[in-house]
Amino acid sequence: MTEDDKKVIDLHIAEYNALTTRATYFTNIQSILLTVFIAWVVVMGNLWDLKSENIVSWGLILGAQLIAFINANFTDGYYTIVAYIENDLKPKIRELIKKDDFWGYEPYLVKKRSKKYKNKAMVGFEFSVVTLSLFVIIINAAYRFPNKDQWDWIGCILNFTLLIFIFRKTYNTVKVRLRNWK
Questions:
Q1: Its pTM surpasses 0.85
Q2: What angle do CA 78, 61, 129 make, to 5 degrees?
Q3: Element (H, E) at 114
Q4: Is 102 exposed, middle or buried (0-12, 13-18, 19+ CB in 10 A)?
Q5: Cα 130 to chain center, whole Å?
Q6: Which residue from 86, 88, 43, 91 is spatially nearest to 63, judged by alpha carbons?
Q7: Span between the terminal Cα atoms of the chain, in Å
Q8: Is 117 helix (H, G, I), strand (E, B) or coil?
Q9: Digit-coded pLDDT (tens) for 26-70
Q10: How buried is 89 (Cβ within 10 angstroms: 0-12 exposed, 13-18 middle, 19+ buried)?
Q11: Separation CA 177–CA 105 (nearest Å)
């Protein structure tokens, strides 16, 4: 192995460290989002008597979906990092060191997962937020629309629009996971 090869390996390892640090930040921020959601529910609950019920009900759903959208972006980023490490970075290092017995955690997990359910279960889990959001929006709309006003229409349109963004991000996340794990 040449001195240049060692320098390239050091650069790849530095990139790996930067990516795993970023993934750790993503995980930490995702755990904070649960606290943000709970705080949002408490704030909106305290506004229930002070503001119009329709603004609060649609605002509660909109805030929850915004948090879900942020979470979906972090999940997508996390899957993209793992796919990049496994499919791009690892082969580059493998070629330089002529060994394959490093960074074995992801392949270990793939072997442990049940082949029968791994894709179906994960896709169902990843789309659970979209499904739950759709259900809550429909229930709220059914409850709200007999007495609808402009805020109900605005709330419904904003929530369905954000739901579309969440669906698209979740769909992209699933594509990264299903297509990039070897």
A1: no
A2: 35
A3: none
A4: exposed
A5: 11
A6: 43
A7: 28
A8: coil
A9: 999 999 998 999 999 898 888 877 767 778 888 889 999 999 999
A10: middle
A11: 16
